[in-house]
Amino acid sequence: MPHIKQVAITGGTHGNELTGVHLLKHWRSDPAQVARSSFTTELHLTNPRANGLNRRYIDQDLNRQFSLDDLNNTALLGYEHQQAKALNALLGPKEDPRVDFVIDLHTTTANMGTSLIFNSEDPLVVGMAFYVQQQLPHAKLFMDPGERLSDTFLTSVGRYNGFLVEVGPVPQGLLRADVYNETQVVVMHCLDYLDAFNRGTLPNLAGQREGFCFVEKVVLPENEQGELTAMVHPDLQDRDYQPIAPGDPFFMTLAGDTLAYTGSKVVYGAFINEAAYYDAHVGLSLMDKIQIELKSEPTAD
Amino acid sequence: MPHIKQVAITGGTHGNELTGVHLLKHWRSDPAQVARSSFTTELHLTNPRANGLNRRYIDQDLNRQFSLDDLNNTALLGYEHQQAKALNALLGPKEDPRVDFVIDLHTTTANMGTSLIFNSEDPLVVGMAFYVQQQLPHAKLFMDPGERLSDTFLTSVGRYNGFLVEVGPVPQGLLRADVYNETQVVVMHCLDYLDAFNRGTLPNLAGQREGFCFVEKVVLPENEQGELTAMVHPDLQDRDYQPIAPGDPFFMTLAGDTLAYTGSKVVYGAFINEAAYYDAHVGLSLMDKIQIELKSEPTAD
């Protein structure tokens, strides 16, 4: 694998997730923290207009607009459609990117702790997740592999389909110091990893680690008028990454009745009661627990 | 005191506080829950437009628009200015209200548990707080007495300056079942209290109970550009209603440095890191611990 020369740290991709926005401000005033001598680090606030209004987005979720087809579709004229094209020009272009690796900072209202989200089986990317989890054993690995060019995340604009750091729980529109500190620690480990990779000084990494793979989103019950009739059950609330078995309490109706999980096998919850998904009435994601393999040791040429 | 004939339960006064909005939907489908034979209960979603957009407000905070001067000021033309006038026509008018008692349902992102907020020393109002706390000893009493006609809260439109039920922590824009259930329990006690008052069957209430009285709001540190340079300190986060002594950790700068509380006496925090106050960069409210007196037993004529 070639050396990593250019790393971008991005925040405010969702404008009301303030942690990344303020870490960028901090690092701009103290660039030494994100500098590593073997590569250049750049910092980008990616949805300043939504951030200025303290909203997730203006017209559409920016972090779903980066498939190559959509980037090339001149009929898509929403604010975030345009912003994705601008970011592709700044960081990419996707077919032959200038930036090697994008680390995008997010938060969630769900009790997901520190989640490392990546959509690539590339050893450089998987190796970063394994390295960070080796330093921070409480971090969870959240993998949904796919093709980089069709991937819709901002991170897919880099040469490697990089890394989304997702920390919670924190409400939208505010800063929690614990979440701010934790996000900063994770990013330091990510940068140290890329630096060690470039220098050939990576420690031994496990060949396999436990992780979670996205299965499906689950919509909350609605009535015929499309109004919510139930919410996440109190026994499921805050139990991200815990098993959900057939028959377990799943939803609670507005009248207080329990609705059970009707699936046929054990799954695991994530993004349980994420506020950002209420516009689509999504209550949680279901995940499979998987073993993630590091197919070869990441080594620069 | 005269009998209570007409009680209004209101929700969605802040459009992204979903708990009250959905309790209203539930009670509309099951009116027996909020019915008491000695008075009539009516249910009102008070800021439907902000709720439809999942925002606290459209133009200005609705729950600051109910002073008599503002209600009579025809130059105030914002959406919530107009909505306040419409609600005053529906529930009031403030000088001679149709509705006797307004119970307004709110949530907070702060770790305030169950807070009973009222701005009146009237024995009927204070008695409700004492009664609810007798049933739910974890509930906190939050009092800021003033004149009903100049009070800016929606609850001041009723004949008695009623009661704001504030439960948290819950992020904006979502439902937590625990907060939903707790809010419902509090409202049931409020209605039972008014019913017992009308019937002359109130239990003995304490003459005095501990509570908290608003002192001032504290703004987070800013730079010359008006940008936040610090956040609530991790040792203060989630410690609502706990003492803050001179020298205690208060804020943490973006660089991680601790700023101490510089006041001269012990105070108590509330609304610590409330997302709704970030537009004004307010980090928390300071409170005094006080003894609240029930000046006479509430008794109907």
Automatic annotation (TrEMBL), chains A, B:
It is an enzyme of class 3 (hydrolase). Keywords: Hydrolase, Metal-binding, Zinc. HAMAP family: Aspartoacylase. InterPro entries: AspA/AstE_fam, Aspartoacylase, AstE_AspA_cat, Aste_AspA_hybrid_dom. One of its GO terms (molecular function) is aspartoacylase activity. This is Aspartoacylase. The keyword Nucleotide-binding does not apply. The active site is at E166. Its EC number is 3.5.1.15. Residues 4-194 form the Succinylglutamate desuccinylase/Aspartoacylase catalytic domain. Coiled coil: none annotated. The lineage of its organism: Bacteria, Pseudomonadati, Pseudomonadota, Gammaproteobacteria, Oceanospirillales. Residues 210-289 form the AstE/AspA barrel-sandwich hybrid domain. Its cofactor is Zn(2+). Pfam families: AstE_AspA_cat (PF24827), AstE_AspA_hybrid (PF04952). Zn(2+) binds at H14, E17, H106. Belongs to the AspA/AstE family. Aspartoacylase subfamily. Binds 1 zinc ion per subunit. One of its GO terms (cellular component) is cytosol. CDD domains: M14_ASPA. It comes from the Bacteria.
